[in-house]
Each structure stands twice: as structure tokens, then as C-alpha cells.
């Protein structure tokens, strides 16, 4: 085993390798994938001196535990969580030096949902279609981490940041998603559009990297027929037969047959990555100029 490697001691509920994704392959049926909270992943990379495109680990809910084969610099961003090195408290949101063989433990999120663990040199699993990201829908990229897995690391190419505190938005108490109506808003009644803009929704527990599902009032269809499958984009608000909106996230399918009533502004999607089940959701309709 190379000394530039990480051993996974505790994989956590769901920990995957993510980078900026694999855009440009939708015509092949391949989603973009990539880190759901892209700003948090980029911040973690900057803290350890990595380029922004380096692959990181995306944790879910209860973190993970890792043991490097050689000394590395690590930073944890995204959902705030306790960090320890061999049982000793270490800072979150700052560069941390982890000696060879020491145990880095990223604990359960105190708020939010997804954490990002960057390691100097980046996670160097083999890329697929130009990306190292795990895609849960298509199965491309490395599988989700399991206990005992070993991850290769690249060689550091930058110096860690010298910071005491890094400003970063916290997980949302209320998720506000700005949406532009269309392309299939004419498949819904006027009252459905008013409901979307005014009703109280909550994040459903069935949400995942593919889509953020909501609980709340159903949206009434004006057209009851079937819609031929058509292209889907990141942030599309698709309405399945139960009438409750689903916001497509990074691992979304590239085509779909349910109508899309609106599309979420890309800038609002990182907050969706950190919205735990039960978080209030409000759709703010922004008309086209």
C-alpha cells in the first residue's frame, strides 16, 4: 500500500467521493453529480491548499473516521460537527495536521446534513468521464465508502490556509428556494401556482442526492394526460402523481416524464443540500425578465 492513502475505519451512514462533477454528458444519460454543497467542498479544499476541483469526501449525518498512512492536512466544512484526532478535539472549518496512523474522527452533524472532508493532495480514485464523483443514480464513479476501504491520495500542490475563522453560511432554519416558472407550468391550474408560491412545505425524510422531496399540499394539474419524457436540469421542480414538488439535485435523472412546474435558481441549491428532514421550505416565485 502506498503511504499516500487513507484507510476508512468508520464509513458512516453515507460517505461518497465527490468533486465538481461530470457536466456535459446529459446527452449520454449521465447526470452531472458532484458535491451537493459545492461552496462547502470548495472551502474545504482551499483550507488544505488543494485546487478547487480536487476530490473530497461528502459525509451524511454522522460523519466518518479515517486513518492516513502518512501525515496529511485535513479540513472539515459543510455541516458543523465535532472533529477529533486520536480522541483530542480539533478545529472544524480550519486546517488540521493529522500524523501518520492517527485516527481522524468526524462526528455527527450538530446542524445540517452533509459534511466535506478535504485531504491535502485530494482523493485520487480513478476518474470516470473526467470526474471522481460517486453518482448514486447511474452507479458511475467509486462506490460509497465501506469500513476497511483504502483510498489513494494525490500529492499536495499547495500550502494550507492560515486562518482562525472562516465565514460560511449555516444550515437553513427555513429553506427559501427562488424558482422561475416553467417549462410546464401550463400543465397546472392557476391555483396550483398560487399554492406553490404561498403554501408551507417541509423537507421529506425520503430526500436524497437525487432529489429533495417535500411534504405539503398537492399541486393540481390542469392537463391530465401523460407527458413524453424530456430533458431534466439541475434544480427542476418536478411534480409526480402525488402532486408534491420534488427538487432535482446533483444525481438527478437526465430525462423524466412528469411535468416540471418551475426551476430553482442554482445559487439556492447548496442550502438544499444542508436541509434536514422537517425543515420548512418556501418557494419564492421570480418571474422571467
General description of the model:
By secondary structure, this protein is mainly beta. The chain has helices at 38-48, 190-198, 269-273; strands spanning 5-10, 16-18, 56-60, 64-68, 72-78, 83-85, 88-90, 96-98, 104-106, 114-119, 150-152, 175-181, 201-203, 211-215, 230-231, 236-238, 246-248, 255-256, 260-264, 280-285. It has a seven-stranded mixed β-barrel with strand order 12-19-16-17-14-13-20. Strands 7-6-9-4-1-11 form a six-stranded antiparallel β-sheet, with no helix packed on it. It has a five-stranded antiparallel β-sheet with strand order 2-3-10-5-8, with helices on one face. The N and C termini lie far apart (57 Å).
Which properties best describe this structure?
elongated; 7-stranded mixed beta barrel; mainly beta; 3 helices; 289 residues; 6-stranded antiparallel sheet
Report the end-to-end length measured between terminal Cα atoms: 57 Å
Shape: elongated
The largest sheet is:
7 strands, mixed, barrel
Structure classification: mainly beta
Percent of residues in helices: under 10%
Compressed to H and E, one letter per element, the order equals EEHEEEEEEEEEEHEEEEEEEHE
Strand percentage, roughly? 25-35%
Counting DSSP H or I runs of 4 or more residues, the number of helices is 3
**Residue-averaged pLDDT, rounded?**
95
The number of distinct β-strands equals 20
Strand order of the largest sheet: 12-19-16-17-14-13-20
Unreliable stretches, pLDDT < 50, 5 or more residues? none
